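ok so i was messing around last nite and threw this chain in just to see what happens. nothing serious, just curious
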Amino acid sequence: MIKKRALLEKELQIEIQKDLSTELAARTKAERNKQDEVRTGSGKRKSAPVSASTVSPPSASRGGGRPRKQQRTSSGPPGSGGTALGGGGGGGSGRKKEKLYCLCRTPYDETKFYVGCDLCNNWFHGECVGITEEMSKSLTEFVCTECRHARDTQELYCLCKQPYDESQFYICCDRCQDWFHGRCVGILQSEADNIDEYICPNCQRNSNINFANMKNLNAKDFEGLRKLIKQLQNHKSSWPFMEPVDPDEAPDYYGIIKEPIDLQTIELRINKRSYRKLSEFIGDMTKMFDNCRYYNPRDSPFFKCAESLEAYFVQKIKCLREKLVENK
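result:
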């Protein structure tokens, strides 16, 4: 009798999961269709900046007073499948400045072939950099002239030693004045504004925040991560992030987003203990939110869900860091 009841409960759980998956897929598809209807004419072909604020590269700011916090500028690359990002923006008057690409600084032209730099996310006409579409199929890496120069002259930033990338958020260390990707040091852009003084792991590895972000994770730490990922999955704004984006619903997504990530993949990495440090887990979460804001218009439900879930995540990760420090 007990065995039969257990089997019935298991079957019921499977049915509930199927129903939830069907409902989630239908909701996502409906929102995608609604979003496509909003995009009309040239709006389907042009990508608009998500953020209106633009700042100079770190290298241009180092000599004088310390810049506050660098804002992430986010605008879409040309879509490989024809359709690019929808227009972001939310109600501002006037037309936004058109995004320029390549060495020739011209707007995106869907009739031309583009190749993307693997370091800076900028896009270039094949004819301007001497690469044909056929040649690109055998390329393992393309690095633009500016990034090659930066790499050769050691103008590299962060723990990962990469050239400056204007599409990513950086935070400046108040002590050494070096710049770091928020992803690499475990700092979200939304929490950086509340940090009065930031000291990087190179300068002060054992500060509370750096200790929590950079320590090697143990079995107890992974229990905390498993609990956190479940809390995120149960949040009302998590539905766009539950599983990988369906290419049938967003055909150009994987041409635009170079590093796709979702809660299902993150949960799998937690269960496999793929993360060595908390900063790596935070990096994947940050990437997930950034991808969503990069691809979707500001006034879309997807963008709003990213903002809502990220705010919730900031609160939860703060509590988790405190627990890691307590167990120091």
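not much to say yet. The two ends are 48 Å apart (CA to CA).
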